[in-house]
Amino acid sequence: MKRTVAILITVLAVATSLMAQNSGRTKFATDMYQAKHEMIIEEMGLTQTQASQFLPIYEQMEREIYQVNRNARVLAREVEKKKNPTDRDYEAAASALSSTRMREGEIEAKYFDKFSKILTKKQLFLLKQAEVKFTREMLNKNKKRKN
């Protein structure tokens, strides 16, 4: 119990710091990231030291991935808004949208090396499982809300 409280205090301190850095985010987005981070820390069983080292790096990775996806979405929206988009416009947007997963993978690989200096091998494994679990739970909550 003490460990959980200590980790949550660390998470809140780091999250507050990260939120200050990302003041452009909506409250919903900030709340989602915070909930995700809390779940990941719990699922991975991070120590307070690990959490304080891991979260800023993880947040940086999330920002890079977000930017890649945002750039592709902006380009796609620009093509959708054009009255007469050219084949070149369509090709650029399609290429950007298609390459997002590859770029996400490259970013994740870069950060995997950084994470491996902080996390155990088991925690590295649990990280991906925690991310999938969080996504699944959010999708299920959204699905229930719509029904």
The helix content, as a percent range, equals: over 70%
Q: Report strand %.
A: under 5%
Number of structurally distinct domains: 1
Main sheet specs:
none
Distance between the termini: 36 Å
Give the overall form.
globular
Overall structural class, as computed from helix and strand content, comes to mainly alpha
Give a short overview:
By secondary structure, this protein is mainly alpha-helical.
List strands and helices in order, with pairings.
Elements (H helix, E strand, L loop, with lengths): L1 H20 L5 H18 L3 H34 L5 H29 L5 H26 L1
List its traits:
mainly alpha
Description:
With 147 residues, the chain is mainly alpha-helical. It has one domain. The longest helix is centred in the middle third of the chain and has 34 residues. The N terminus is likely disordered. The protein contains 5 helices and no strands. It is globular, with a radius of gyration of 18 Å.
